[in-house]
Task: structure prediction
Amino acid sequence: MQRRQFLGSAAVALAAQRIRGANDRIAVGLIGCGGRGRYVAGLMREAPGVEYGAVADVYLANAERAKEWAGPQAQAYQDFRRLLERKDIDAVHIATPDHWHAAITVLACQAGKDVYVEKPLAHNVREGRAMVSAARRYNRIVQAGTQHRSAAHFREVEKIVQSGALGKVNWVRVWNYTNRYPEGIGHEADSEPPAGLDWDFYLGPAPYVPFNRKRFLVTYRWFWDYSGGYITDFGTHRLDTVHQIMNVTAPRTIAASGGRFSLRDDGEIPDVLQVTYEYPGFVMSYESCLLNGHGVGGRTPGMQYYNARGAEDRPNGMAFYGTRGALYADRIGYEIYPEPNKPGSASPPLERTQMNTSDATRLHAANFIECVRSRNTPSAEVETGHRSTTVAHLGNIAFKTGKKLHWNADTEEFAGDAEASKLLARQARKPWDLI
Result:
C-alpha cells in the first residue's frame, strides 16, 4: 500500500488541530493482541472516556480474544491497514513484535492517528529515525512504551544524582540476569502455521522463512530477524533510565564481548553479553546473562525487588557509583549505600536510605491519553525513545562486529566505519520497504 493512499496532508493537519476536553471520548485501536498488548490496553482503558473500538492481529485467535475483551462495539481485523482506515479511531496502541513497530507507526501517523508503541521503539536505528520523522511531519503524539519515564522514584533518583549528593558518578552498571540453562527456548522443527495465522503477513518486512513456532509469539525475541535480544527487550528500559538520571542522550564509544556459550537451542542471541559505553564524564557497563539469575548487589530486609525469585537474587537493575555512595535502583524502588566517611571529612555522611513503589505502566498509559487530549509532549516522547533504543542497537552492532565503535550522534553514523554503519538498517522485504 502506497503512502499517498492514506489521508491527505490537509486532513492530517486538521486532525492535528483537535484539542479535546477531559471528558471527550478517545477511540483507540489495538494492533498486536498478545498478552502484553491486552495488559496495557486494560490499563489505558481505565482513563475516563477511553474505549477500544478496533483490534488487529495477523493471528486471528489473538484478534478474536481481544475483540471479546474490548466489547461488542469493537471490530476485529487480521490486516491492521483496515483499522487505520477507520476515521473514528483516534489513536493506535502497537504491541506487535519489534520488526513491525516502524512500518505501522509511520502508516498510522500518515493516517492521522496518535501512537503508543511498545518498546523497543524499532528493530534498527534507521527505522527509529523514520518513526521520529513521521511523528514530526504529521504532527502526531507518539509515546514510546518505556514506562520508567512515568515513575516518580526515578525522577527522585535523577535529583539525587544531579544534586551531587552521591558525589561524582563516573561508573554506572546496568544488568539483566535470568537462568535459562540448559534448554533455553528449546528446539522445534519447521511446520505448517496454525489455523488463523497469516505467516507471510507476520514476517512482513523480515526475510521469508518457513513457519517455526519458536519464531512466533513470546520466543520471537531470540531471533535477529525480529528483535535484538535481552538488551533491546529489557535493557532498553534501563538504558533509557540511565539517560534520564545522568542527563545524557548518546554514548561516544561502544565495545562489546559475549557469545553463545552454554545454551543449545534454536535461538540466535548471545547467552552472555557485556557492552561498555563511554559517555562524557562516565563509563557505563551493560550486562545480560542467561545462565544465572542472581544478578548484582545486595538486598535490604523487607524491600521488594522487581522480578526477584529467590531470597537473595537481584536479577535486574541499575547501579550509580559515586564518590560518596552507591545508589541501586530497579523498577519498583531504590537504595542508597553510603561510602564510609574519610577521617577529617567535613561533609556529613550519607544516610542509608531505601524506598519501594509500584510499576508505572498504568501512569504511563494515562499520560499518553492525557497528551492525546491536550497535545502536550508525552513523558517518553518518540525522540527520547529512539535515542534510548539506539543505545541497545549500538551494543548489538559492537558485539556483531567485534570492534570498538565511535558514534556520531548528530549524523547517526559510526565515525570511519562504513561497514558497521550498514548494520544501522536493513533492506525490508517488499511491499513493506517503506523506510
Observations:
- The domain at 152-359+394-408 is CATH 3.30.360.10 (Dihydrodipicolinate Reductase; domain 2).
- The mean pLDDT is 93.
- Residues 169 and 360 are 26 Å apart (CA to CA).
